[in-house]
Design a protein that fits this description.
heterodimer, A: 158 residues, alpha+beta, 6-stranded antiparallel β-sheet, 4 helices, 6 strands, B: 374 residues, 6-stranded antiparallel beta barrel, globular
Chain lengths: 158, 374
C-alpha cells in the first residue's frame, strides 16, 4: 500500500474518464521513457494507481488518483529526522523550499518528503515527464546533502 | 598492517607544521595540523603534539582548552599538557578578569560625535545613524542592515570607515555597528523623564535632509522605550536610524521602521538604545568567544562547541579551519540547543521538546501515559 497523502474526508469527485485514462497512459509512457517498467513498478493503492522506482539514491513514488478532481502526486521520502539539531534542520528545509521549483519539502511523522502534486486537468505527457524528472533530480541531490549536514538516517537504509 | 613509510611521512609533516608555526606562518601550519589530527598513520603522541600546536593558532582560551583536552585524550600521561590545561582553566575561572571588548583596537578619536552618520552597504539602501557611546558604537535600524555583516560608515564627504555589525534586534528594529573610531564627548541626551508629549523635534538624515515632527501621547505607561512620532514611514528620509533632536539640541531617540497603531513611525528612545549597547558589552564580556549571527542578529556560541548552527535561529555557520578540526561537543551542544531539558518522547525517544503536546521530531502526542512503540 502506498503512502499517498489524501485530502481528509472530502468525497472524491470523479474526473472525466477520458482525462484520467489519458493521464494514466501518459504516466506509464513516461515511466517507460525514463527506463522504468510501469508494470513492475506498480504499487497496490487504495484508489487510483501508484508506482515506485529508484532514482540514484532516492526512492520515487508516483500516484494518479481520481480523488476530488483527480490529480497527479509525485513524492520521495528523503530521510528520517535526526534526534537532535531540529531547529537548524527545519530552518534549512524552509530555506530549501524557497529554492525549489514545482516541488516542496515537508515532514510527515518522522520522515522528510519531497513532494509535488498537480490537478490532472490540462496535464500533458511533457509536463508530467518534467515533474517526475525534476523531483527525482532534487531528491537524489537533497538526500545526500541533508544527511551529510544533519546526520539523519537516509530513508530505506539501515 | 602498520605502514612504517606512512608513519614516517606523518612525523615529517608534523615537524614541518611545527616549524611553520614557529616561523609565524599560522595559516599553512593550521591546514597541515588539521590534516594531521585526523591522520591515522600518526601515533597518539604525534596527534597529541599536533593538538598542542593547534592550540597555539588562536588566542582565545576556550579554543586552547578544547585542543589541549583532545591532546590529553591521545596522550593521557603527558604531565605538561595536563599542567597547561590546569593553568588555562584557572585563568578562565578568575573572578573580575574580563576580556577586553575591542577598545584596544581603537586608534582614532573624534573630538565630538557628529549629529548624524551615514550608513551604506546595508540590505535596504542608505540609512542614518548616531554614535551611542564614546567607544565608537553606532546605532541604526535593523531594517537598514538586514543580513549584512559589514557596512561603510560615513561621517562626512571625506571621512569614511568600515563598520562591523555586532548586534541586531529585529523586534526593536535596531542594529549596533562597531567602528574603530571613538568620540571625545558623548551625545547630549534628553533624560527619559523629561521627554513629554508634543515635544517637537527634527529628524536628521545623512546628507542634510531634515524632517520636522512631534512626539505623540504614549499608549501605555510601560512603553517608555518607544517614542510615538507624527511621521508616517512613507515620509522617512531613508532606511531609518535618523536621530531626533529637540530644540535644545538633545538627542531624543532614533527613528525606526516600526509603527504604532495609527500607522506612524516609532522612535527608539536614546536611553533604550544606550541600554541595549550596555547589554551588548556585558554579553560580550560574559561570552567573549561568541560570534554575531547575521541571520537573526543574536550572539551565538555554537562554534565554540563545534556546532554549525546558531542556537537562536538555526542558521548555518561556517567554522574556521581550527574549529572544524575539533569534534563537536555533543553534551554542550545539546544544552546550547536546549535539547537536553525535556523528557524523552515516549514514541521516538528524542529530547527535542514538543509543541502543542506533540513531539517536535515525530509529531506524535507526548501524553505521559503513552506507551512507546516497538
Amino acid at each position: 500500500m502506498g503512502r499517498f497523502f489524501g485530502r481528509g474526508d472530502k468525497k472524491p469527485t470523479e474526473p472525466a474518464d477520458e482525462q484520467f485514462d489519458l493521464s494514466l497512459l501518459a504516466v506509464e509512457g513516461i515511466l517507460g521513457a525514463i527506463g522504468v517498467d510501469p508494470q513492475a513498478a506498480r504499487m497496490d493503492v487504495e484508489r487510483g494507481y501508484g508506482w515506485n522506482f529508484q532514482r540514484g539514491s532516492a526512492l520515487i513514488e508516483v500516484y494518479l488518483t481520481s480523488e476530488e478532481q483527480g490529480y497527479l502526486q509525485v513524492l520521495s521520502p528523503i530521510m528520517h529526522l535526526p534526534a537532535s539539531n531540529l531547529l537548524a534542520l527545519y530552518r534549512r528545509l524552509l530555506e530549501l523550499n524557497l529554492q525549489l521549483t514545482n516541488a516542496a519539502l515537508g515532514v510527515h511523522e518522522d520522515v522528510i518528503y519531497l513532494y509535488h502534486e498537480r490537478l490532472l486537468a490540462g496535464l500533458d505527457a511533457e509536463e508530467a515527464d518534467a515533474i517526475i524528472r525534476r523531483l527525482a533530480h532534487y531528491a537524489d541531490e537533497l538526500d545526500d546533502a541533508l544527511a551529510g549536514e544533519f546526520g539523519g538516517r537516509m530513508y530505506g537504509r539501515g | 598492517m602498520f605502514d612504517v613509510a606512512a608513519s614516517m611521512s606523518a612525523q615529517s609533516d608534523l615537524r614541518h607544521a611545527i616549524e611553520l608555526m614557529q616561523d609565524g606562518e599560522v595559516a599553512p601550519a593550521v591546514d597541515l595540523l588539521n590534516r594531521l589530527v585526523g591522520d591515522s598513520t600518526l601515533d597518539d603522541k604525534g596527534r597529541a603534539a599536533a593538538y598542542v600546536w593547534l592550540a597555539e593558532a588562536r588566542a582565545d582560551s576556550a579554543f586552547k582548552i578544547r585542543c589541549l583536552e583532545q591532546a590529553l585524550a591521545h596522550d593521557p600521561d603527558n604531565r605538561q599538557i595536563r599542567q597547561g590545561l590546569g593553568q588555562l582553566a584557572a585563568e578562565r575561572a578568575k573572578p573580575g578578569k574580563l576580556p577586553p571588548t575591542g577598545n584596544h583596537h581603537r586608534h582614532a578619536k573624534l573630538a565630538e560625535a557628529p549629529l548624524v552618520i551615514g550608513i551604506v552597504g546595508g540590505l535596504n539602501g542608505p540609512a542614518s545613524g548616531a554614535f551611542v557611546n564614546s567607544a565608537g558604537l553606532i546605532a541604526t535600524t535593523s531594517y537598514a542592515i538586514g543580513g549584512a555583516e559589514r557596512v561603510t560608515v560615513t561621517l562626512d564627504a571625506e571621512r569614511r570607515l568600515a563598520g562591523v555589525v555586532v548586534r541586531r534586534l529585529p523586534t526593536h528594529d535596531l542594529a549596533l555597528i562597531e567602528t574603530t573610531l571613538g568620540t571625545g564627548r558623548k551625545q547630549s541626551a534628553a533624560p527619559p523623564t523629561m521627554i513629554a508629549e508634543n515635544t517637537s523635534f527634527i529628524a536628521l538624515g545623512y546628507g542634510g535632509a531634515r524632517l520636522r515632527g512631534a512626539l505623540a501621547r504614549h499608549s501605555s505607561a510601560g512603553a517608555r522605550q518607544w517614542l510615538r512620532t507624527t511621521i508616517p514611514p512613507a515620509q522617512m528620509l531613508d532606511a531609518g536610524g535618523n536621530p531626533l533632536y529637540d530644540e535644545y539640541g538633545q538627542i531624543l531617540g532614533l527613528l525606526t521602521r516600526n509603527v504604532d497603531g495609527a500607522g506612524n513611525a516609532l522612535a527608539a528612545s536614546f536611553s533604550h538604545v544606550a541600554s541595549l549597547a550596555e547589554q551588548l558589552q556585558r554579553d560580550r564580556q560574559l561570552m567573549p568567544e561568541s560570534r554575531y549571527c547575521a541571520a537573526c542578529g543574536s550572539l551565538t556560541r555554537a562554534a565554540l562547541y563545534g556546532g554549525r548552527h546558531c542556537e537562536t535561529c538555526g542558521a548555518a555557520k561556517a567554522l574556521d579551519h581550527t574549529e572544524a578540526a575539533l569534534p563537536p561537543q555533543i553534551d554542550k551542544l545539546a544544552a546550547l540547543y536546549r535539547e537536553d531539558v525535556g523528557r524523552p518522547c515516549v514514541h521516538c525517544g528524542a529530547r527535542v521538546g514538543g509543541c502543542d503536546g506533540r513531539c517536535l521530531r515525530c509529531g506524535r502526542a507526548m501524553a505521559s501515559g503513552a506507551v512507546p512503540e516497538a
